[in-house]
C-alpha cells in the first residue's frame, strides 16, 4: 500500500511539472540574422562583384569560373557549372544602338515585373533601381535580382545582378543592394567614369 501511495505521488508530481512547463519553451528560436559586413576587396567575380562578398552573401563554396560576353558598352558575365548559375551580371551603356529611351524601356519592363513581387527601391545615391526576390522563380532561374540605371561619365548605364541563392540568415534584399553599390563603384573604376555624374 505504501508503494502505491508513493507511485501515485510520483505520478502527480510529474503531471504537475509537465503542466507548469511554459508553452513557449517548445517554440523554435528564430535564426539570427547574419551581420557580417560586405566588403569591397579583390579579387572580383565578373569584374564587378568581390569574390569574398559574393561567397558571404550567397553561401557558395568551391572554385568559381566565369564566362564573359560583350564589351564595355553591352555585356554579361556568369559563373557556369551549375544550373542556375550562382551569379550573373549584365551591363549596358547609352550608345547609338542602346539609346537613352531604350534604357528607359528596359527599366520600365523590369519595374513592372519587380513591383508585382514587392521590390524594394534602391537608395537615391544608386540611381533608379529595384531589388527583389522573385519567389516564383523556377529551378533554372536566379530569384534574387537587383537592377540600377545610373549616370556615369554623362551617359546612362544599367547594371543587373542575378543571384541563385542567399546564405541562410542573410537579408537578400539588403545584401544585393550592397553588392550593387560595389558593382557601380567598380564600373566607374574600370571604365573611367564617376557613378552619379
From TrEMBL:
Keyword terms: Signal
Signal peptide range: 1-25
Name this protein carries in UniProt: DUF3558 domain-containing protein
Organism whose genome encodes this protein: Streptosporangium canum
